[in-house]
């Protein structure tokens, strides 16, 4: 039964709230070890416990590839379906099918990204705190960290959207981030705003924010993907037209050469006349 008017709008709104909440809760459950250590990290930071904070950093770095990355890939599997028009997809089944199918690539990508984040964060901290005359390098590292963070959205989108090797996925995720600066800025701004709201209101973070961020990130990626595909199709069409024009030109040149050769050959009557004269 389909409702119309105001009742239909309320029904669709509650339906989307349920979808977002269910997907977000599945993500939170599968990412619970990472979230636990993250919360502990925030608590020990408030108490200025340096050793415990360092231990939490190590724990977060270890569990992130094992839990956070596969769970986020599963989340993107669901929002990919939504963005492509399949809004009635079974959430629980789709989530865990995506979790299982993309676990290996998510794990490898998670290790790669975690190592990069750790190295770049350490560089940023060192340059900003211990080398006062090289803080410009620290600022550059901060910008690179932000770009790396945005490339994560492209990484998860490509993991669930393409069938390719993990090396190509990481490479294309980074390249796509660099060649689309407007998308980078809009994704960074939108996700930053949503995360800010989520941290201000933790209930929204648990039930809605991550799903909305994932939906927004894949929407940006899919729009970029469609635009690039259109450009590639136009380039391919232009190339085919140029090849067809070149082939037609070559065919015309061949016809002209044949006609010129035929006009240069003596006619049979002329040959007979020449023989009679001899």
Automatic annotation (TrEMBL):
Residues 259-278 are annotated as: Disordered. It comes from the Bacteria. Keywords: Membrane, Transmembrane, Transmembrane helix. The chain crosses the membrane at residues 21-44, 56-79, 107-127, 139-162, 174-197, 203-225. Residues 264-278 have a biased composition (Basic and acidic residues). Pfam families: DUF624. InterPro entries: DUF624 (IPR006938). This is DUF624 domain-containing protein. It comes from Paenibacillus xylanivorans.
